[in-house]
Automatic annotation (TrEMBL), chain A:
DUF83 domain segment(s): 7-180
Domain of life: Bacteria
PANTHER family according to UniProt: CRISPR-ASSOCIATED EXONUCLEASE CAS4, DNA REPLICATION ATP-DEPENDENT HELICASE_NUCLEASE DNA2
Organism taxonomic ancestry: Bacteria, Thermotogati, Deinococcota, Deinococci, Deinococcales
Keyword terms: Antiviral defense, Exonuclease, Hydrolase, Iron, Iron-sulfur, Manganese, Metal-binding, Nuclease
Family label: Belongs to the CRISPR-associated exonuclease Cas4 family.
NCBIfam families membership: cas4
Assigned EC number: 3.1.12.1
Gene that this polypeptide is encoded by: cas4
GO molecular function: exonuclease activity; iron-sulfur cluster binding; metal ion binding
Cofactor note: Mg(2+) or Mn(2+) required for ssDNA cleavage activity.
Role: CRISPR (clustered regularly interspaced short palindromic repeat) is an adaptive immune system that provides protection against mobile genetic elements (viruses, transposable elements and conjugative plasmids). CRISPR clusters contain sequences complementary to antecedent mobile elements and target invading nucleic acids. CRISPR clusters are transcribed and processed into CRISPR RNA (crRNA).
Name this protein carries in UniProt: CRISPR-associated exonuclease Cas4
Organism, scientific name: Deinococcus arcticus
From TrEMBL, chain B:
Family note: Belongs to the CRISPR-associated endonuclease Cas1 family.
Root EC class: hydrolase
Phylogenetic lineage: Bacteria, Thermotogati, Deinococcota, Deinococci, Deinococcales
Taxonomy, superkingdom: Bacteria
Functional note: CRISPR (clustered regularly interspaced short palindromic repeat), is an adaptive immune system that provides protection against mobile genetic elements (viruses, transposable elements and conjugative plasmids). CRISPR clusters contain spacers, sequences complementary to antecedent mobile elements, and target invading nucleic acids. CRISPR clusters are transcribed and processed into CRISPR RNA (crRNA). Acts as a dsDNA endonuclease. Involved in the integration of spacer DNA into the CRISPR cassette.
Name of this protein: CRISPR-associated endonuclease Cas1
GO MF, one annotated term: DNA endonuclease activity
C-alpha cells in the first residue's frame, strides 16, 4: 500500500476535513500562518549538514517506514555523538502544545527508528516565534495516535469525500477557511429562496 | 483570503509586455508606457496583436494568474492553463452530474432562478428612478418575470427551463430601453443581435458580456471545474457552457446595470460608436477603455453574499459561485445556491 505522507498526519489530527481538502480535493490557500511557515521551512531546508558540539544536523532528510507505511521529509534531524537520531520539527508559531504537531514528530521518529535500527525515546519541537524548543516523549499512547491517524488518512483517501466541517476555534487559524466554509449553512439559510415571487423587498 | 486584484486589459495594438523585476513593463513602439506591479494584477487579458515575453508568461503562470488572448474584437482565442489544473475528482463529479438528467435539471433550475430574480431586481430598481409611464411598464415586466419564476419548479426538463428563461428574456428586453434616460432615440433596442451587432446597445452588450464570460471561465478554472461542461447551456464543441451558466446570474446586475449607468450618466454617447454601411455598429477604442475602467471600478463594489453572509467584492462573486457549485457537485452541499442580488 502507498505510504501515508507525514504532513497528512498532521493535517488529519488537526482536522480531518482540512486533510481531505488538501490531500483529496487538492485545495491550497495561503494565509499569514502558512506564508510564515513556508519562510521558516525554506530556511530549515536551505542547508545540508552542519556540526556543532558533536551534534550533526541533517536538513530535509527523506524519511520512510515500510513497516508502518509512512513517508515524508524531516525538517531537521539531529545526530547525537553516539549516532542516534532525534527529530526536530520547526513551527513558526508560539509554543503551544498541539497533538497534531506531536503526532507529526512522533511519526518521523517511527521512520528514523526503522531506518537507523535504534529506538528513539524523544524529539523536539522548535517554536520560532518564542525561540523555544520543547521535548516531546514518544510514549506508547503517542505512538498509537500516529498509527490511528495513519489509518484515518488511508480511510479518507479511499473514500475520497469530505468529512463534515469542524466549525469551532480551529477554523479561525485555518488557511482553508474560505474553501471549507465551516460556518455557512449546508442547506439554504432562512429567507434564501431562489423561487421567491415577492415583488419588492418588504 | 482570496483578494480581488485588477485585471490588466491591453487593447493598444502592437503593445509589448515584459517582466521587469516584479513589474509588468508596458511598451508601445519601444517606448515605455507603464510599469504595473505584479502583485496588483490578478489576470491579464489582451486584445489582438499584443505580445507578452515568455518570462512574463511563465511568471504569471507560476502565480496562477491566467493570461487570456482575445481577437481585436473580443472573441476568445486562448487562455493559459496554470500548474494548478484542478482536481480530477471534481471533474468526474461534474461530468457525472451532467450525465444525470435529474441532477442537471435541479442545477439548471437554480441557475435560471438566479438569472430571473436578478433581472427582476434590476427592473424594479430602475422603476424607482423612471418617469412617466415607464415605472408601470417596468413593474409589469417584473411581474411577468415573476410568473415565469413561479413556473420554474414545475419544469420537468432542461428544455422547459430554457423555454421559461426565453419567455422571461423577451419580457426583459422589451422594456430594457425604458431603463435608459439619455439619448433614447439613439440607444434603442429592437432585438438582441449577436455578431455582428446591428445597434449600439447590442455592440455594448456583446463587449461587456465577453469580458464577464472571461471572468467566469477563469473562475471555473481556478476552482478546478471544466468550463465547457454546463448544465443550463447545452454542450456544444468550443463553447464554455459552464462559464455561460455562471454568467447568467450576473448578466443583469453586473453587465446590464453597468451599461445603463454609463448611458444615463452620458459617459457613453452616440459619438462613441461607428455606424458602418449595411447597419452594423462598432464601439470606438476610447469608449471600450471607458467601459473597462467602469467595470473595474464596479468589480470592487462590495455586496453581502446572501448565502455566505460575507461582504464580497462583486468581482469575486464568480469565484464564490464556482466554489459553491463545486461543493454541490462533490456532495458537500445539497443544492446549488445561485447568487441573488439585493
Amino acid at each position: 500500500m502507498e505510504e501515508v505522507m507525514l504532513s497528512a498526519l498532521q493535517h488529519f489530527v488537526f482536522c480531518p476535513r482540512q486533510c481531505a481538502l488538501i490531500h483529496v480535493e487538492q485545495v491550497w490557500a495561503e494565509n499569514e500562518f502558512t506564508a510564515r511557515g513556508q519562510q521558516h521551512h525554506d530556511r530549515a531546508h536551505g542547508g545540508g549538514t552542519e556540526e556543532r558540539g558533536g551534534v550533526r544536523t541533517l536538513r530535509a532528510l527523506p524519511l520512510v517506514s515500510r513497516q508502518h507505511g509512512l513517508a515524508g521529509v524531516g525538517d531537521v534531524v539531529e545526530l547525537l555523538p553516539d549516532g542516534s537520531p532525534r527529530p526536530v520539527e520547526y513551527k513558526s508559531g508560539r509554543a503551544r502544545p498541539r497533538l497534531a504537531d506531536e503526532v507529526q514528530l512522533c511519526a518521523q521518529a517511527l521512520c528514523l527508528e526503522e531506518m537507523f535500527g535504534v529506538s528513539i525515546p524523544e524529539g523536539f519541537i522548535y517554536h520560532a516565534a518564542s525561540h523555544k524548543r520543547r521535548v516531546v516523549a514518544f510514549t506508547p499512547a503517542l505512538r498509537q495516535a500516529v498509527l490511528d491517524a495513519r489509518d484515518g488518512v488511508r480511510d479518507l483517501l479511499r473514500r475520497q469525500t469530505l468529512p463534515p466541517p469542524a466549525a469551532d476555534d480551529r477554523c479561525l487559524h485555518c488557511s482553508l477557511l474560505e474553501s471549507c466554509e465551516p460556518f455557512a449553512a449546508r442547506e439554504f439559510p432562512r429567507g434564501f429562496d431562489p423561487f421567491s415571487t415577492t415583488l419588492e423587498d418588504p | 483570503m482570496r483578494q480581488l486584484l485588477n485585471t490588466l486589459y491591453i487593447q493598444t495594438q502592437g503593445t509589448y509586455l515584459h517582466l521587469d523585476t516584479d513589474n509588468i513593463r508596458v511598451e508601445v513602439e519601444r517606448e515605455r508606457k507603464a510599469m504595473i506591479p505584479l502583485h496588483h494584477v490578478e489576470s491579464v487579458v489582451v486584445f489582438g496583436n499584443v505580445l507578452l515575453s515568455p518570462f512574463l508568461i511563465h511568471r504569471l503562470a507560476r502565480e496562477h494568474k491566467p493570461v487570456t488572448w482575445l481577437t481585436e474584437h473580443g472573441r476568445f482565442m486562448a487562455r493559459t492553463e496554470t500548474p494548478v489544473s484542478g482536481n480530477v475528482l471534481l471533474r468526474v463529479a461534474q461530468h457525472g452530474c451532467a450525465c444525470d438528467r435529474a441532477r442537471t435539471l435541479a442545477v439548471a433550475r437554480f441557475i435560471a432562478a438566479g438569472k430571473l430574480q436578478n433581472q427582476k431586481t434590476t427592473l424594479l430598481r430602475s422603476a424607482r428612478e423612471a418617469l412617466g409611464n415607464d415605472p408601470e411598464l417596468l413593474r409589469q415586466a417584473a411581474r411577468d418575470i415573476n410568473g415565469q419564476i413561479g413556473c420554474l419548479p414545475l419544469a420537468e426538463t432542461v428544455d422547459e427551463v430554457r423555454g421559461i428563461e426565453g419567455t422571461a428574456a423577451r419580457a426583459y428586453w422589451e422594456v430594457f430601453p425604458l431603463m435608459l434616460r439619455a439619448n433614447r432615440d439613439f440607444f434603442w433596442l429592437t432585438e438582441r443581435t449577436r455578431r455582428p451587432a446591428r445597434d449600439a446597445i447590442n455592440a455594448t452588450l456583446n463587449f461587456v458580456y465577453t469580458v464577464l464570460a472571461n471572468d467566469c471561465a477563469s473562475a471555473c478554472q481556478a476552482v478546478g471545474l471544466d468550463p465547457q461542461v454546463g448544465f443550463l447551456h447545452a454542450l456544444r464543441p468550443g463553447r464554455s457552457s459552464l462559464a455561460l451558466d455562471l454568467m447568467e446570474e450576473l448578466r443583469a446586475v453586473v453587465a446590464d446595470r453597468a451599461i445603463i449607468t454609463l448611458i444615463n450618466r452620458q459617459q457613453l454617447t452616440p459619438r462613441d460608436f461607428v455606424l458602418h454601411e449595411g447597419n452594423t455598429v462598432t464601439i470606438k477604442d476610447e469608449a471600450r477603455k471607458l467601459i473597462l475602467a467602469h467595470l473595474t471600478e464596479r468589480r470592487k463594489e462590495e455586496v453581502t453574499h446572501p448565502l455566505t453572509a460575507r461582504k464580497t467584492p462583486l468581482g469575486l462573486v464568480p469565484h464564490v459561485q464556482a466554489r459553491l457549485l463545486a461543493q454541490h457537485l462533490r456532495g458537500d452541499r445539497a443544492h446549488y445556491p445561485p447568487y441573488l442580488h439585493r
